[in-house]
Specification:
Blueprint: E1 2-13, E2 16-27, E3 31-35, H1 42-50, E4 57-62, H2 71-77, E5 78-81, H3 93-101, H4 110-116, H5 132-144, E6 150-154, H6 162-177, E7 181-186, H7 189-195, E8 198-203, E9 206-211, H8 213-219, E10 224-230, H9 236-240, E11 247-251, E12 254-259, H10 261-273, E13 278-284, H11 288-296
Parallel strand pairs: 3-7, 3-8, 5-6, 6-7
Antiparallel strand pairs: 1-2, 1-4, 8-9, 10-12, 10-13, 11-12
Bound molecules: adenosine-5'-triphosphate.
Keywords: Antibiotic resistance, ATP-binding, Nucleotide-binding, Transport
Membrane topology: Peripheral membrane protein
Subcellular location: Cell membrane
Length: 300
């Protein structure tokens, strides 16, 4: 069942079309990623979902509610962590949690939430004294404090060190496992590939692809690459004839075959059948990076 439905969404700032006919549906219980280069329209799209921006055209429904017309209902089901978050430098973690909890009719237990997010020992710390990772955890807590059924996380791990980023990924998975649907805006490929059940790739205000991470990778022209130095001379035409072989090249004695996983198996069988040893064998799978570059024509 779709918990977020966006159809035919348009939003311009003056002459600039930020979102140009975007449609997608987020299913209950999934982590749905919105991925794209800077300025692609990701934040504008999620701001329309959150009711923070009024679409020029098109419709948005969150749990059946219009985020602008049914603002109160959407606030009860949707929690948001905004891309640029700030709080009063002197407010403490506990004061913040209590303040936000008071805004909701049925808030989560903020102490349990602080415990779950690993900031229970920071309740008396002032916001300005928190590390980047602790601030992010606090913002996730604030997004969850109203007991939402869907949470929007925008560029959550930007600026975090690799360990804090991985810890945050685990938190996002825990949130999903607790039954909350996650709409995640990111431009980190590894994050999208690891976390998202499905990804909408947005470029210049339009969705260029919408699929599972492996589905997107499967669309890339880069495919899988196997390279090796054969122990004895090899007739390259045999390799070209293998299933799904896209290209075969040789440079400095190293043979490079591009294709699919099926091609890799076929190359290995052919070599084994002819008693040829593959020295310095390497298999490189296409990644979401390759798919992203193919499908957006942009730099990550
Ligand atoms: N308030 C605004 N006024 C004018 N133009 C804006 C405004 N907000 C965004 N834009 C423009 O709209 C386009 C889409 O911006 P948006 O912030 O939605 O992209 P984004 O994909 O979230 O980018 P980023 O990854 O850099 O955060 C950009 O060209 C941006 O400059």
């Amino acid at each position: 069942m779709a918990i977020i439905e966006v159809s035919g969404l348009h939003k311009a700032y003056g002459d600039k079309k930020a979102v140009d006919d975007v449609s997608f549906a987020v299913e209950k219980g999934e982590i749905f990623g919105i991925l794209g280069p800077n300025g692609a329209g990701k934040t504008t799209t999620v701001e329309c979902v959150e009711g923070l921006r009024r679409p020029d055209r098109g419709s948005v429904l969150v749990a059946g509610y219009d985020p602008i017309a049914d603002r109160g209902s959407v606030t009860r089901v949707l929690g948001a962590q905004l891309q640029e978050n700030e709080l009063q430098p002197k407010i403490t973690v506990q004061e913040t949690l209590e303040l936000y909890a008071a805004c909701y009719p049925d808030p989560a237990d903020w102490r349990a939430l602080a415990e779950r997010l690993g900031i229970a020992d920071k309740l008396r710390a002032r916001f300005a004294k928190l590390s980047g990772g602790q601030k992010q955890r606090l913002f996730i807590a604030l997004a969850l404090i109203g007991n939402p059924t869907v949470v929007v996380l925008d560029e959550l791990t930007t600026g975090l060190d690799p360990r804090a980023r991985r810890d945050t990924w685990q938190l996002i998975e825990d949130i999903r496992d607790s039954g909350v649907t996650v709409l995640l805006v990111t431009h980190f490929m590894e994050e999208a590939q690891r976390l998202c059940d499905r990804i909408a790739l947005i470029d210049k205000g339009r969705i260029t692809a919408l699929d599972t991470p492996s589905g997107l990778i499967g669309r890339t022209a880069s495919g899988t690459e196997i390279s090796f130095k054969p122990s004895t001379a090899l007739d390259l035409r045999q390799l070209t004839a293998l299933p799904a072989a896209a290209s075969v090249t040789e440079k400095g004695g190293r043979v490079v075959v591009k294709g699919t996983d099926e091609t890799v198996s076929a190359v290995l069988s052919l070599l084994a059948g002819q008693g040829i040893t593959a020295h310095q064998l390497r298999v490189v799978e296409a990644s979401l990076d390759d798919a992203y570059l193919d499908l957006t024509g942009a730099d990550a």
